[in-house]
Specification:
The complex is a heterodimer of chains A (about 180) and B (about 375).
Chain A (H helix, E strand, L loop, with lengths): L3 H29 L2 H20 L7 H22 L4 H7 L11 H16 L2 H12 L4 H8 L3 H24 L1
Helix pairs in contact in A: 1-2, 1-3, 2-3, 3-7, 5-8, 6-8
Chain B lengths: L6 H7 L7 H17 L17 H5 L3 H11 L3 H5 L9 H14 L3 H28 L4 H31 L3 H25 L10 H33 L3 H24 L6 H26 L3 H24 L5 H10 L1 H18 L2
Classes of the chains: A mainly alpha (about 180), B mainly alpha (about 375).
Chain lengths: ~180, ~375
């Protein structure tokens, strides 16, 4: 049976759920573009995290730990997809349209659609880091903890990623 | 004029994607249960967060090591329960933790997959238990009493798989619905045979609890069997209304894919298969290939209805074979004989059709 420490861990874990579950679900959804798979990844993320914690593992920062677990599960997901001969392009093609917030400005709506499409076409680590930075609103140190990349590398990826997105979206506008 | 795009701002807009609150609430409920049934141990041994958290490694963490740590720390009962067998002190904790695990999985397909994996686990566990019971010379009454919770859990998980199979049918996904029902039917049949043969003939006293549970296992088998028939009938009437031509070709393609799948499974499992299973499976495969060729030639000669029915029977027969190969490759020869006998009905049906066609063609 769990003692006082166990109870404390349970409380911390459920608090972390309340605080980060929504963000993890959104992150997974933007990475895999499927609601059902994102839900599953979110559920697995929390189960694996609890298994780690309940098994005696120490977590200093739940936020970055949860993102790391989620990222590993996303990688596993794409690997298993690759084994069944489904390319990442196929996955992107099959992806559900993102249910977006309402917009009034028509130009913004067009740009929004375009960014979504081009975000999916970026290299995986670019997409991951841009989502972490601008949608999950993580700071560079947190992204460094999650991805294991150097800060310089992260800054470079963000800079290049934004540039690529801008160019692709502007090309769309021209056409 | 081209408007200057600010990707940063638009990316931030994606944050406003509406959240799925219903999902988050039910996941929370599931996690609360999961945490309660898989409580944290007050370990002294710490694993630093710096250790790269690789999910596949965690999955493969040696059970023995977890067991030793749990015993040393005087806690971690859930981890220690994972290798327990029916009747052992920790067995109910194992079932409880499995139930909590199922409750946390919300995606219906993955839930059904997990439940089917647990069904297979119960089958393997029953084999181990019965070997142990023989060595320890447990009385039959003792064996029945020990197995009771396991059989109930087996039924509970089969019920989940049945629900999923039903959904597949409702969605019109007949191929997968037939496979899911075949898996279910085979699992129930194999479990029933293992228990009945090992517990020796006229086993269950009518009043015993396990008797009711075993009747339910038999009912799952029959339900799945009649569901497969229903699906086939529904499919046939759909095909009839559209003149059979397209349906026949689609069915032949589906049957060819099934043949490939079975060939791959036999190839992949050849080292683990009981030689008799392997031989019978290969024989069955050759027979069905022959029928499939006949279906194609019926199709080419314009006899779409017969082509459809033959291909449909091949799919049904091979779905059963796939389930059998995956569920219990090392099963003993007596059970195997029983299994093929159960499928004889379908084989006879195919043979009858072959006979009819030959006489129609004047062979």
């Amino acid at each position: 049976m769990s003692g006082l420490k166990g109870k404390k861990l349970e409380k911390q874990f459920l608090e972390a759920y309340d605080q980060y579950a929504e963000a993890i679900l959104r992150h997974a959804y933007l990475r895999v573009s499927s609601r059902a798979i994102a839900q599953d990844l979110t559920s697995e993320t929390f189960v694996k995290t609890w298994q780690f914690v309940a098994g005696g593992g120490e977590v200093k920062n739940f936020k970055s730990f949860l993102y790391r677990v989620c990222n590993n599960l996303i990688i596993d997901y794409y690997r298993s997809k690759a084994k069944t001969n489904v390319s990442l392009e196929d996955v992107a093609e099959q992806s559900e349209p993102v249910q977006e917030a309402p917009h009034n400005d028509i130009d913004t709506v067009i740009a929004f659609e375009s960014i979504k499409k081009h975000l999916d076409s970026l290299p995986h680590d670019y997409k991951q880091i841009l989502i972490h930075r601008y949608i999950d609103e993580l700071d560079i140190v947190e992204i460094k903890e999650i991805t294991g990349k150097s800060m310089t590398n992260i800054y470079t990826i963000i800079h290049r990623g934004l540039k690529m997105l801008r160019k692709k979206t502007e090309d769309d506008q021209k056409n | 004029m081209i408007k200057r795009i600010k990707p940063k701002l638009i990316l931030k807009e994606l944050k406003k994607i509406p959240s799925d609150e219903k999902f988050l609430m039910s996941l929370r409920e599931g996690l609360v249960n999961y945490v309660k049934t898989n409580p944290a141990a007050d370990y002294e041994i710490k694993v630093l967060e710096k250790t790269p958290f690789k999910t596949s490694k965690i999955r493969m963490a040696p059970a023995a090591l977890i067991g030793i740590i749990a015993v040393l720390s005087g806690a971690g009962t859930v981890a220690a329960s994972q290798n327990s067998l029916p009747g052992e002190a920790l067995y109910n904790i194992k079932l409880l933790s499995e139930r909590a695990r199922v409750a946390v999985v919300l995606n219906p397909k993955n839930k059904a997959d997990l439940q089917f994996a647990l069904v297979q686990k119960r089958i393997n566990e029953a084999k181990e238990f019965l070997e142990k019971a023989k060595m320890e010379q447990l009385t039959r009454q003792q064996q029945e009493s020990d197995l009771s919770a396991a059989v109930d859990n087996f039924n509970e998980n089969l019920s989940g798989v049945y629900g999923w199979a039903d959904n597949l049918k409702k969605e019109g996904n007949f191929e997968d619905a037939i496979q899911a029902n075949s898996d279910l039917k085979t699992a129930a049949s194999v479990y029933q045979q293992i228990l009945e043969q090992n517990l020796d003939g006229d086993i269950y006293e009518k009043t015993s609890e396990i008797n009711k549970s075993m009747i339910m296992v038999g009912e799952w088998k029959n339900k799945a069997k009649s569901k497969i028939e229903n699906i086939n009938q529904e499919e046939s009437s759909g095909a009839r209304s559209s003149g059979f031509e397209n349906s026949a070709q689609n069915k032949i393609n589906a049957a060819s894919k099934k043949v490939e799948t079975i060939e791959k499974i036999i190839q992949k499992k050849k080292n683990n298969l009981n030689p008799q299973t392997q031989q019978l499976s290969l024989q069955k495969l050759e027979d069905t290939k022959q029928i499939l060729e006949n279906a194609q030639s019926d199709y080419n000669s314009g006899d779409y209805e017969n082509a459809f029915e033959k291909a449909q029977d091949v799919v049904k027969s091979l779905s059963g074979a796939k389930a059998f190969l995956e569920i219990s490759p090392e099963i003993n020869s007596d059970s195997l004989k029983n299994f093929w006998n159960e499928n004889k009905e379908s084989d006879n049906h195919i043979r009858d059709k072959e006979g009819n066609n030959s006489s129609e063609r004047g062979d």
